[in-house]
Every structure is written in C-alpha cells, then in structure tokens.
Amino acid sequence: MRQASPAWEEKCSRCGLCCHEKVIVGREVVYDLDAHCEHYDPKTHQCRIYLERLEIEARCRRVSRFSAMFASYLPETCAYVQWARSKHIRFAIRRHIRFARGNCGDSSDEDPISSLCPAK
Ligand code: SF4
Questions:
Q1: CB–CB of 69/90 below 8 Å?
Q2: Among the atoms of ligand 1, which is closest to the Cα of residue 19?
C-alpha cells in the first residue's frame, strides 16, 4: 500500500489517541486510556509496526486528508484536525474529548482521570 508523503506523516504529533479504544457519545468522544491497539507502545506513543500497519492490522486506518476533514473519532487536539481547521475544511462536528480508564482499579487518587471511575 502506498505510504503518505513524509511531510504529511510529520504533521502527526504522536499523541497516540487515535490508537486507543474510543466511543462517540453525543457531542463527546471518550478515549479509554487503558485500552489501545496491541501494536501501540504506550511508553513511546509509537506504533511498533508503523510501516506495515495497514497490511497487518485490519482495524488501522490511515489518517488521510479526507479523515482530517470528516472523521469524528479524531480528537480536536489531533494535528491533522488542527491542520484541517486552519484550512477551514474540517466538517465533522466539534466534539469534547473525555478520558476514561477501563481499568479503574489501577488509578491513583492524584490521577485526574480517576474521577471518571466509579467510587471505590
Ligand atoms: S490523534 Fe492525530 S496527532 Fe495524535 S497520534 Fe493520531 S494522527 Fe497523530
């Protein structure tokens, strides 16, 4: 499969949010910080199979100009979304980002995300 240009690839800030499980609820996108693609390395925020990801991982989607313009699952903080907004070609509705932890048992009281977990 053809790779995107280096200039397009370099726009990615490697936040890794698009590699996490997510669900769209109304005007929010909720990212589960405890659940991510098996090929995503949470320490480096990098994909371990980046160059072959589209062949190996059926769920992986290239972030194209089209998805920068229309994909609701990309966070507002995504560099591609910000690029599309700067060009006035972002057409997906603006959604608030919310973080959750599927594994609430590991969150500490100092962790701001723990407030999303049910009380212990
Ligand atoms: S959400 Fe956007 S900026 Fe973050 S890793 Fe994914 S493509 Fe890159």
A1: yes
A2: 6
Please answer whether residues 31 and 99 qualify as being in contact, where contact means their C-beta atoms are separated by less than 8 angstroms. Answer: yes
Distance set, CA 114 to CA 10, 17, 110 (Å): 33, 18, 8
> Looking at the whole model, is its pTM more than 0.85?
no
For residue 100, how far is its CA from the centre of ligand 1 (angstroms)?
18
Cα separation, 27 vs 51, whole angstroms? 33
Nearest Cα neighbor of 45 from 71, 23, 77, 12 is 12
Q: Tens digit of pLDDT for each residue in 44-81?
A: 989 999 999 999 999 999 999 999 999 999 999 999 99
Q: Please say whether the beta carbons of 46 and 14 come within 8 A.
A: yes
